[in-house]
């Protein structure tokens, strides 16, 4: 695995997505449910940044049409989206948040 530092854990606010770019991949980092998640920052339905969405119960909701994606699997559970979005492994090392975009979990 190829983990790269993207930010400090202390820079992430609970339930507030943060957009980062890593190796030309747009990623939404989300600290929620006692973990940090990294998900591709684009709704599979309408190409809207998920980092602009609302976070609730380990899900992120696209603000445009309301599709919700599970942060653990990338799978949508509310239409109109039907295709999952990639989620990436996250590792915490001290106060560093490390993400591996080369090896999506799904």
UniProtKB/TrEMBL annotation:
This is 3-phenylpropionate/trans-cinnamate dioxygenase ferredoxin subunit. GO terms for molecular function: dioxygenase activity. CDD domains: Rieske_RO_ferredoxin. It comes from the Bacteria. Keywords: 2Fe-2S, Dioxygenase, Iron, Iron-sulfur, Metal-binding, Oxidoreductase. InterPro entries: Rieske_2Fe-2S, Rieske_2Fe-2S_sf. The keyword Repressor does not apply. Residues 4-99 form the Rieske domain. It comes from Nocardioides marmoribigeumensis.
